[in-house]
Each structure stands twice: as C-alpha cells, then as structure tokens.
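Lab notebook: predicted structure, single chain.

Context: the supervisor wants predicted structures on file for every construct in the current expression panel, including those that have not yet been purified. This is the next one on the list. No modifications to the sequence; it matches the entry in the shared construct table.
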Amino acid sequence: MTRPTNPGRGTRAQVQMGETIAILLVFFFFVVIGMVFYVNIIKSKSATEKEENTQLEAITVLKKALALP
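Prediction complete. Output recorded below exactly as produced.
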C-alpha cells in the first residue's frame, strides 16, 4: 500500500466533513422546531374553529326550536 504524499490533506477533509455534518444537524434541528410550532398553531386554530362550529350549530338548533308553533 502506498501512503498519501500529503498526510495533512486527509485530516482537513475529515474536518470539513465534520463541519458539513454539524451544519446539517443544526439545519434539521431548526426544521423540527419549526414543524413543532407549526403543528401547535394548526391545532389551536382547529380547536377554535371547532368551538365556533359548535356554537353555530347550537344557534341553528335554537332558531329552529323557536320557530316551532
């Protein structure tokens, strides 16, 4: 087996690979945090809309009941 002519070259590539992996991990960490906030916002909006629909149904039933002879 032959040795590389420049032994420092391999370690520099390893450092660059480590930096790339670290950047990707940070990126995916931020993506996950963003998704968590997005899902929480969607859940709260969904709960609000569900409550509004329930109130509208109650009003509709009340109007029908009041319209009965």
